[in-house]
Specification:
alpha/beta, TIM Barrel, globular, nine-stranded parallel sheet, GH, 18 strands, five-stranded antiparallel sheet, DUF4015, 2 domains
């Protein structure tokens, strides 16, 4: 009888422990989903008494709060009267790359959602979790790629040379122009294109895309179709009512290169770009990469008051870019291709969209891959505390990658980060260095040290031989 009672007691204890464990697990799981977001750039401390400032968190950083303390500090005023100063401190955890860290912050700088934490103009962005599929007949690969222009593809034997170079140097992907920097289409497309443009497809450089794709696939090369989105000279000439102009006088707006930009609010251009993407998917490309997915540089947004963006739907720039990518993803899903977007390298280090419409989390939540252009030559003097970022490829790419990963930590199911890196020498940069194999290795190492193992090399001339 005593044995039976003891056995029953033991079973009760075991089951109580199981239920208790489940309860703790459930609470922890619920707590892990109960995020808060930082509303300002704030200092973080090692303890509740703020003895040591251990860094800062930027606006929008996702955190978990799991303790609150009221700290009372006594002092005396000028008359010798004792006064008390109360400060509420919150103990938080946050992710720094792949590590969960603990810190203390002052109360009053947290919001329950990312939309409430960021600037007013970004509050309509959609940060909900989006499904990122893997297609059975189009498996994902860890891309180590080269940019290959349509002219390199069309040049006799040049494609073969690049394939041999790829095989010898662990390169498995080519990014090929399908809609180029001026809006030109690079291989013959169906009549479906004609309703959007009369001249973009008149003289494609690549006369037949089918043998090109076959050759790439026969050699194990993953094919990415580069589509320039909103910098489109050909479309602009045919659709002058769609371009960005000055409100006063109606003159076309151009950047320093003299090229006219079409407004990213133009939904007809959205359809056109996606139609081109469908042609690329049907031709056998594995992935669609949207480049120039932005508004033109406008002096940090200072020109916005004088420019006519033809914003009929009263959307912010960031909303337009996100909705464009969302539309493209939905339209292209039946074709079982992956979607990627190229963005400025510094977007990951900025708490806004740099007045370009590229808000990190809004882009990353929509696409399968996000490709920040981390060319060290494109970072200004003093960025990341570096006098000449171009002369510090490891440090520049490391810090940019770290910031990008931490922005991905703010959302559920973000895009895979696959940076563009520099395979050219930026002679125009004061204090620049010559780029070669060592500089490529430093950039790749910077990413790998943070767990990022995909990248694409950019050389406008496609002369990569000297970089390996």
């Amino acid at each position: 009888m005593k044995f039976t009672k003891n056995l029953l007691l033991l079973i009760t204890i075991i089951f109580s422990g199981i239920f208790y464990s489940k309860e703790i697990y459930s609470k922890e799981k619920k707590s892990n989903m109960d995020y808060n977001y930082v509303t300002e750039k704030i200092k973080i401390y090692s303890d509740e008494n703020k003895k040591e400032n251990i860094g800062t968190l930027i606006k929008g950083t996702r955190v978990n709060v799991f303790d609150t303390k009221e700290i009372v500090k006594k002092s005396k005023d000028k008359k010798g009267n004792e006064i008390e100063k109360k400060t509420v401190m919150k103990k938080i955890t946050y992710k720094d790359v792949n590590k969960t860290k603990v810190a203390w912050i002052e109360d009053g700088y947290l919001a329950p959602t990312l939309n409430e934490a960021i600037d007013e103009k970004f509050k309509n962005l959609d940060f909900t979790k989006k499904e990122k599929k893997e297609y059975k007949d189009n498996k994902r690969v860890k891309v180590r790629g080269l940019y290959v222009s349509a002219h390199s593809v069309a040049l006799k034997n040049r494609l073969d040379e690049l394939i041999e170079l790829a095989k010898k140097n662990n390169i498995n992907s080519f990014v090929i122009d399908v809609k180029g920097d001026y809006g030109e289409l690079t291989f013959p497309m169906s009549e479906e294109i004609d309703k959007y443009t009369k001249s973009a497809n008149k003289s494609p450089v690549i006369k037949d895309i089918e043998p090109v794709i076959k050759k790439l696939k026969d050699n194990g090369i993953y094919a990415i179709a580069r589509i320039v989105s909103f910098k489109d000279t050909i479309y602009a000439k045919e659709n002058p009512d769609k371009i960005i102009t000055y409100k006063d006088g109606g003159k076309a707006f151009t950047n320093s290169d003299g090229l006219v930009w079409v407004s990213a609010y133009d939904k007809n251009l959205w359809e056109y770009n996606v139609t081109v993407a469908k042609e690329a998917a049907k031709a056998g490309f594995n992935e669609i990469q949207f480049d120039y997915v932005r508004f033109p540089a406008s002096n940090g947004g200072k020109l916005d008051k004088v420019l006519n963006y033809r914003n009929a739907d009263n959307m912010t720039k960031a909303e337009a870019i996100q909705k464009y990518l969302n539309y493209a993803k939905k339209e292209l899903e039946p074709y079982e291709v992956y979607i990627s977007a190229d963005i400025y390298g510094q977007v990951g280090s900025s708490s806004d969209d740099m007045s370009l419409g590229q808000f990190w989390e809004a882009v990353s939540t929509e696409v399968d891959y996000v490709s920040p252009m981390m060319y060290p030559s494109h970072y200004g003097k003093g960025v990341y505390g570096l006098a000449v970022p171009d002369a510090n490829p490891y440090k520049t790419v490391y810090q940019s990658t770290k910031d990008s990963i931490n922005r991905n930590n703010n959302i559920d199911n973000p895009a895979i980060i696959r940076p563009w890196i520099q395979a050219f020498t930026a002679t125009w940069v004061k204090g620049h260095i010559a780029y070669g194999p060592n500089e490529i290795k430093e950039q790749v190492k910077a990413m790998k040290d943070l767990g990022v193992d995909e990248y694409i090399l950019w050389s406008p001339t496609n002369r990569y031989e000297k970089f390996f």
